[in-house]
Specification:
Radius of gyration: 17 Å
Distance between the termini: 30 Å
Order of helices and strands: HHHEHHHEHEEEHHEHEH
CATH architecture: 3-Layer(aba) Sandwich
CATH class: Alpha Beta
Number of domains: 1
Strand content: 5-15%
CATH topology: Rossmann fold
Strand order of the largest sheet: 1-2-3-7-6
Largest sheet: 5 strands, parallel
Length: about 270
């Protein structure tokens, strides 16, 4: 893996997120999209198996964005990976666009599932992992959740099921940025030691800096235990890369003005 290449991809993704958030001229989920950029860049540049010319390739790895409001991080990864075009990306949140505020399943565009209502993606992942095993397929299933999403009881049902079925072809990723829609996650539903909870349910737990490419790559590729599903708890910063958005929950869903857009680009050294 070329760390600098992944960092360059992540920087391009951040720029694309800012560009489209401004040009769409409506509010967008920017903060949670920015927090997952390094995760997505690592996955789509160095980890996932896929075919840009055949997104429906049967042996591709499956990626599910369970935290559907992180769609900007997803779409920008699909763009930089060469799965969707600039023209399609530019339609984000316009009438009749395939790129809506939350993902809608569209295999030709590399979108594996419809997500938005939280707490469902990991259960989908369990089903896909079971199906792959029964078909004796070698591909893996990756599911990205939000830390706030893990308040949902359905998530823990899926966690328990995955361990019971020994789904070592299933990898969960938690974007642990400390916030959710209504505020600070610990103030809303304190989770204590998050890793210990997953471990107590029978999962292999890897805890990493969610903005460190090497740590992310090693957690995805190594850190494996036979017959155990794996969770990568990625400690991230909501709004990562833009100072006035970082750890500022106003940017969970907000409109990016021209002044703010220019300020963000200046911070990134783009103007």
């Amino acid at each position: 893996m070329d760390v600098q290449k992944v960092k360059d991809m992540a920087n391009k993704m951040r720029r694309k997120i800012l560009d489209i958030s401004h040009s769409c001229n409506v509010s967008a989920h920017i903060g949670g999209g920015l927090s997952i950029v390094d995760i997505m860049a690592t996955l789509y540049s160095s980890v996932l198996s896929y075919d840009t010319k055949n997104p429906a390739w049967e042996d591709r790895d499956r990626f599910i964005l369970s935290k559907g409001h992180g769609a900007l991080g997803y779409y920008s990864a699909l763009l930089e990976a060469g799965i969707i075009s600039e023209e399609i990306f530019a339609t984000f949140q316009t009438n009749e666009s395939d790129l809506t505020a939350h993902p809608v399943m569209n295999i030709p565009l590399g979108i594996e599932s419809s997500n938005g209502s939280l707490g469902q993606g990991l259960s989908m992942g369990v089903g896909l992992a079971l199906a792959a095993r029964r078909k004796t397929k070698k591909h893996r299933i990756y599911v990205l959740l939000g830390n706030g999403e893990c308040n949902e009881g359905s998530v823990w049902e899926a966690i328990m099921s995955a361990a019971y079925f020994k789904l070592d072809n299933l990898i969960a990723i938690v974007d642990d940025n400390g916030f959710q829609n209504d505020g600070n996650s610990e103030a809303i539903m304190e989770c204590g030691d998050f890793g210990d909870k997953w471990k107590s349910f029978g999962w292999n737990v890897c805890s990493v800096n969610g903005h460190n490419i090497s740590e992310l790559y090693n957690a995805f590729v190594e850190c494996n235990v036979e017959n155990k599903p794996k969770v990568v708890i990625a400690h991230t910063i909501k709004g990562k890369g833009v100072s006035f958005m970082e750890n500022n929950n106003e940017w969970h869903h907000n409109r990016l003005t021209k002044v703010q857009y220019d300020q963000a680009l200046q911070e990134m050294g783009e103007i």
